[in-house]
Amino acid sequence: VVRYKWIKGDGPDKLRLYWVVKHSELKSFRWFIDILKSNSQHINQHRIEHTLPLIYQFQINIYVTGISSGIRMEDGVHGPLNMKNLESALYHPSIESSKQKDIQSSDSSPINRIEDIWVWKGRPKWEGIFQSVQEGAHENVGVFFCGTPVIGKDIKKFSKQHSSAKCKFKYHKP
Q1: Which of 10-19, 38-47, 102-111, 117-126 holds the top average pLDDT?
Q2: Which of 32, 36, 89, 145 has the highest Cβ tally under 10 A?
Q3: What number of other Cβ atoms are within 10 A of residue 141's Cβ?
Q4: What Cα–Cα distance (Å) separates residue 112 from each residue in 74, 95, 118, 157?
Q5: CA separation (Å) from 156 to 1, 117, 147, 164?
Q6: Pairing of the two strands 113-114 and 117-121
Q7: pTM of the prediction?
Q8: H or E segment at 56?
Q9: Cβ of 87: how many Cβ atoms within 10 Å?
């Protein structure tokens, strides 16, 4: 829906998706991973064809949790966005989520990024995420959540805590 609205010149300027998935459940969510990959590829194709204004930003952050100590970590993501490279990054994430704010604000080429998709090892650090969004946000930021109530409670708390006159986080849940 957002991709269609963007092509028509409407919708939010920035769309960020944060997905937390347990390492042992990656295979069960292969269908969802494929949807994320396809959306990123379509948006990038529209950018290449200049049919999508550059003001629109799309960012997917995937946090892989519950990684056993026996899993070998890769030295980063290499190559184009395809299922093989994305699955390699997901099954062997190389960058700790605690480094997200520093890495995403630097000018270097991150090794955990394939086009619009970032892969992180560990749980998201919500405090840093809300701070980063607040620093670069517009007046209103919609926060949509579905998942476990424990995480929802934290996200609702951070939405209230980081709202100000300059930036208002509006928490929604299904």
Answers
A1: 117-126
A2: 89
A3: 20
A4: 10, 7, 6, 29
A5: 25, 24, 13, 15
A6: antiparallel
A7: 0.88
A8: none
A9: 16
CB 159 within 8 A of CB 143: yes
H or E element in which residue 61 lies = strand 57-65
Strand order in the sheet with 113-114: 14-22, 57-65, 117-121, 113-114
Pairing of strands 168-172, 140-144: parallel
Pick from 60, 59, 61, 57: nearest CA to 12: 57
Q: Cα–Cα distance between 27 and 48 in angstroms, integer?
A: 31
User: What is the chain's length?
Assistant: 174
CA-CA distance, 3 to 9, in Å (whole number)?
A: 10
